[in-house]
């Protein structure tokens, strides 16, 4: 008999790895989702930056349905034409020359770390393997990527961790310079630390990182898993900084909800990833590539990054106007449509209260409410979300006075 009985209730057959909210979502369309009871919610999480085109976008659905009638899976031992098409779309619209497809952001970051090491060891022949990342960063849940992550909470209980990672405080140039050693092969960072509290990196610090990479022959890896595909008001966040990373990674919004990740790199890195050096059984399947192609064509042809910049400016303006002088709010920051409202106390209660009023948000660390509306969000939807948040945060401020 499967499952166990506890005080008359059947225990879940799932491992309890998620602290789930008591909401069962069963339907989504555009900026809205509905639960089992038929209650409607305005979704400002977008599946945590996954549903960039909103829920069930028609353009992606049509391509997926057509592909389901043709071919689901073969293997990467054969040519997959749409994999090449998707890669061409990505390289034509970025600084990259080559793409490796996988299934998630963690896998994309794992591939980036492997590529950086292999380039130094097999192409340059210098044996380097160490990657420098930053405190409060988040790069994934595999053993390598959680070790790369600059947050201790994700590492609890997983010792021993792999060698080859150092963490330094963001914006600390002296600590960064001191961390570079004979084994350093790359510096890896998010240009907006998402899980770390919605912290955009200062342009001057990014330029200093680029300078150090050139001086020490290091690869620059940009983790665009959450910021890529239009979220920040550019197709890729690195475009805001006028730089070209050697490697960058994508996932989340790349497939509009279909699981897919990608690691992109410069042409000179091809010699490091030769046949047999890395692989993924489900990476780049015909179904996944249909979702990627439809997503990219819709976002690029529709100038949706530019729209995200405009709507992000409007959302930021409305938040600043409504929350000006609110003693419960200690800061509002972000870029494009990834915005954080930092509060003086943990925000778990605010997120729960917002749900009761029909608005879905998510935290970014204990004290930050994270807003991630889809790229097609309307001004009316923004006004509605800001109205709910203003009501809740005003009430919190009144209690504290």
Task: Give a quick rundown of the structure.
With 401 residues, the protein is of the alpha/beta class.
Features:
Aspartate Aminotransferase, domain 1; 401 residues; globular; single chain; seven-stranded mixed beta sheet; 2 domains; 19% strand; alpha/beta; four-stranded mixed beta sheet; 11 helices; Aspartate Aminotransferase, domain 2; 19 strands
Structure description:
The protein is an alpha/beta fold and 401 residues long. It has 11 helices and 19 strands. Strands 6-14-13-12-9-7-8 form a 7-stranded mixed beta sheet, with helices on both faces. The longest helix is centred in the C-terminal third of the chain and has 22 residues, at 379-400. The model has no long low-confidence stretch (mean pLDDT 96). The protein is globular and about 60 Å long. The chain folds into 2 domains: 5-56 and 303-400, Aspartate Aminotransferase, domain 1 (Alpha-Beta Complex); 71-301, Type I PLP-dependent aspartate aminotransferase-like (Major domain) (Aspartate Aminotransferase, domain 2, 3-Layer(aba) Sandwich), CATH 3.40.640.10. It has helices at residues 46-49, 58-68, 81-92, 105-123, 143-148, 173-179, 203-216, 286-301, 304-323, 348-356, 379-400, and strands at residues 5-6, 9-10, 25-29, 32-35, 40-43, 98-102, 130-134, 165-168, 184-189, 192-193, 199-200, 219-223, 247-250, 261-265, 329-335, 338-343, 359-360, 362-363, 368-371. The chain starts with a strand and ends with a helix.
